[in-house]
Specification:
- With about 425 residues, the chain is an alpha/beta fold.
- It has 3 domains: about 170 residues, 3-Layer(aba) Sandwich (Rossmann fold), CATH 3.40.50.11060; about 170 residues, P-loop containing nucleotide triphosphate hydrolases (Rossmann fold, 3-Layer(aba) Sandwich); about 50 residues, no CATH class.
- The chain contains 15 helices and 13 strands.
- The strands form 3 sheets. Strands 6-7-5-8-9-10 form a 6-stranded mixed β-sheet, sandwiched between helices. The protein has a 4-stranded parallel β-sheet with strand order 2-1-3-4, with helices on both faces.
- Helix 12 links the parallel strand 8 and strand 9.
- The radius of gyration is 26 Å and the shape is elongated.
- Bound molecules: guanosine-5'-triphosphate (GTP) and magnesium ion.
- The site of magnesium ion (MG) has 6 residues, from helix 9.
Length: about 425
């Protein structure tokens, strides 16, 4: 009998461990559990199999299929989650064999993105990614969703997902993707225009990237506290994919330095390729940054793998070659001293929570981003005060004193105003 009082769908995870690194595999399974929980799906059991490759037809071997069937019956399982992206044929084979809703890791991640997307752009991106993913899988999903039991929580929750997928045939889906892409490209164009405007203003752009939940949004908020500009904090929360849209804040420091700081969507292990593709336009900002701050959760035992995952996605985005500073965040949660592995230099330990290292991080950002500024001492006669204003706008770390002849300016100045500076060199 169906238990309608249980708000979460009851799930079983099935995973194939293809490498020797058991700890990494188990971490991945744990992560899938949290991803599922974010979709109101509770994992009651995990069945794993060590194999060199997943089975091409059924992901796991025949014997395991029987084991899964037993577990489904014993635990009253409503949905089976597979730890990898399944091929369309695997979905439809498994669907026939298990006669239950089945979803793969990609689907779960897409589902979370769907739930979290707020802006028009994010919604479009997620929808395109979902349709791209579903197009070759319509048959298998169709079979599975026709059996939907409609409990309170879970994947079927109030979304009418079943009906819409039933109705979708390949042609309709393809047309829809074309139409959504067109809509997205209009928004992307607007973004591009905004970016080129910023370029014209020669604003420096710094982007925060990193694994989901590492503290990117919190780091942005912590840096904002050091800014003299108006503050509007970004959303931070202890959940996977709290941030789906990039948001940019202007940071203005007491020393005159100002730059734009962009918060971005987090990355995750096996981030679906379709998502990376459709989020590319949002992540274009990263590609055009002057500097990337790679935020790492230093308190997470898998931080090295998480760095590798993030760097892989950055590579996919063609964002390699941009200078990177690693911020090993959440050091307040680390017992004892945190040693930064040398290969990640330049790097710093931070805590967005306690503000530890944030001042130093800002200093490193300024040094890196304003490395085309040069130190000078200038004497500007009082009749040329207008020029002094221009110089101050293009300077950092400066001080102005006054004597009988005029204002004495000492500081670092942007080379682009060399012609003005040259007039007043002491
Ligand atoms: N103890 C501690 N917690 C932190 C620190 N930085 C962030 N957190 C917490 O970690 C959780 C995730 O922080 P976010 O800033 O939302 O992380 P994010 O990288 O933006 O995550 P996504 O947007 O989901 O990718 C929140 O609960 C934060 O309060 C830190 O330095 N120390
Ligand atoms: Mg965030």
């Amino acid at each position: 009998m169906q238990d309608n009082t249980f708000p979460f769908q009851k799930a079983l995870i099935v995973g194939v461990n293809t490498n020797d690194d058991d700890a990494k595999f188990l971490e991945e399974v744990e992560e899938l559990k949290s991803l599922a929980l974010a979709c109101e799906v509770e994992v009651l059991d995990v069945i794993t199999q060590n194999r060199r490759f997943p089975d091409v037809n059924t992901y796991v071997g025949k014997g395991k299929i029987e084991e899964i069937k037993v577990a489904i019956n014993a635990l009253d399982i409503e949905v089976v989650l597979f730890n990898d992206e399944l091929a369309p044929s695997q979905i439809s084979n498994l669907q026939k064999l298990l006669d239950i809703q089945i979803f793969d890791r990609t689907y779960v991640i897409l589902e979370i993105f769907k739930r979290r997307a707020k802006t028009k752009e994010a919604k479009l991106q997620v929808e395109i990614a979902s349709l791209d993913y579903m197009l070759p899988r319509l048959v298998g999903l169709h079979q599975g969703l026709s059996r939907q039991r409609g409990t309170g929580g879970g994947f079927a929750h109030g979304r009418g997902a079943g009906e819409t997928q039933l109705e979708l045939d390949r042609r309709v889906t393809t047309n829809k993707i074309v139409q959504l892409r067109e809509e997205l490209s209009q928004i992307t164009k607007l973004r591009k225009e905004q970016r080129s405007l910023r370029k014209k203003n020669e604003e420096k752009v710094v982007s925060l990237v990193g694994y989901t939940n590492s503290g990117k949004s919190s780091t942005l908020n912590a840096i904002l506290k050091h800014s003299t500009a108006l503050k509007k904090e970004v959303f931070e929360k202890d959940m996977l994919f709290a941030t789906l849209e990039t948001s940019t804040r202007s940071i203005e420091l007491k020393n005159g330095a100002h730059f734009l700081l962009t918060d971005t969507v987090g990355f995750v292990n096996k981030l679906p390729h379709h998502l990376v593709e459709s989020f590319k336009s949002t992540l274009e900002e990263v590609k055009e940054s002057d500097l990337i701050i790679h935020v790492v959760d230093a308190s997470n035992p898998s931080f090295i793998d998480q760095i590798a995952t993030t760097n892989k996605v950055l590579e996919e985005l063609d964002a390699k070659g941009i200078p990177v500073i690693y911020a090993f965040n959440k050091v307040d949660k680390v017992d004892g001293y945190f040693f930064i592995p040398q290969e990640y230099y330049p790097a710093i330990t931070t805590s967005a929570k306690t503000d530890e290292g944030i001042g130093q991080l800002i200093k490193m950002i300024v040094e890196k981003v304003f490395d085309d500024y040069s130190s000078c001492t200038l004497l500007i006669p009082y009749k040329d005060t207008k020029d002094l204003e221009v110089i101050k706008q293009n300077a950092i770390d400066y001080e102005v004193t006054y004597n009988d002849e005029g204002s004495i300016f000492k500081g670092k100045v942007n080379k682009k105003i060399t012609n003005i500076i040259n007039k007043y060199q002491k």
